[in-house]
Design goal:
With about 180 residues, the chain is an alpha/beta fold. It has one domain: Rossmann fold (3-Layer(aba) Sandwich). The chain has helices spanning about 40-45, 75-85, 90-100, 110-115, 120-130, 160-175; strands at about 5, 25, 65-75, 105-110, 135. Helix 2 (about 75-85) crosses helix 5 (about 120-130). The longest helix has 16 residues, at about 160-175. It is globular. The protein starts with a strand and ends in a 5-residue tail after the last helix.
């Protein structure tokens, strides 16, 4: 299985998880975001370089994955993506992949103040309307009180996104998705 992982710049990115049998490509939203996690450790764990910039013309391209996990998905990433803003490599990948028949699972990492904002709620609904699976609320990621995210790194529910991506990729390969 070849899922992709887009790691956003949020505290749990330092603990990006993978499953046996998966080939993983981690994409950082920007080169500056690489300071938020141990790039060398992630590259060693996944066996692939972390991508944060577009490839030069003629350079080899990444494969289209069986599924993409966007986690931890920030307020900024979700809002920009829903609006079609493609000002970083990761948002460009997400903009294009949303238009393909590739399952995308989003596991947010936002506080309750941001999650309650109307622009965020509209963005979540807009992406869901395009077939993106956003695991937010009961059975997914529950927003935390403001200024408490740093203490949640070890309890971030990566398994929820990985389970859903595996399920959706299996449905897609079996011809039952979309």
């Amino acid at each position: 299985m070849t899922p992709g992982c887009c790691a956003c710049t949020a505290t749990p990115a330092s603990r990006c998880h993978r499953r046996a049998g998966w080939a993983v490509q981690v994409t950082s939203p920007t080169p500056a975001a690489l300071d938020f996690f141990d790039q060398a450790a992630v590259e060693q764990q996944t066996g692939s370089p972390v991508k944060s910039q577009y490839s030069k013309p003629g350079a080899p391209r990444s494969q289209i994955p069986d599924a993409i996990v966007v986690a931890p998905a920030t307020y900024n990433t979700i809002n920009k993506w829903a609006q079609g803003i493609s000002d970083t490599y990761a948002l460009g990948v997400l903009a294009e992949i949303t238009g393909l028949d590739t399952p995308v699972v989003v596991l947010p990492f936002v506080n309750s103040a941001l999650a309650s904002r109307a622009p965020f709620r509209r963005s979540v609904e807009s992406l869901r309307g395009e077939g993106v699976r956003i695991l937010l609320g009961a059975g997914g990621f529950e927003p935390h009180p403001p200024r408490t995210g740093g203490s949640l790194t070890s309890t971030y529910p990566w398994h929820l996104a990985l389970d859903e991506a595996e399920r959706l990729a299996g449905l897609r390969q079996g011809g039952m998705l979309r």
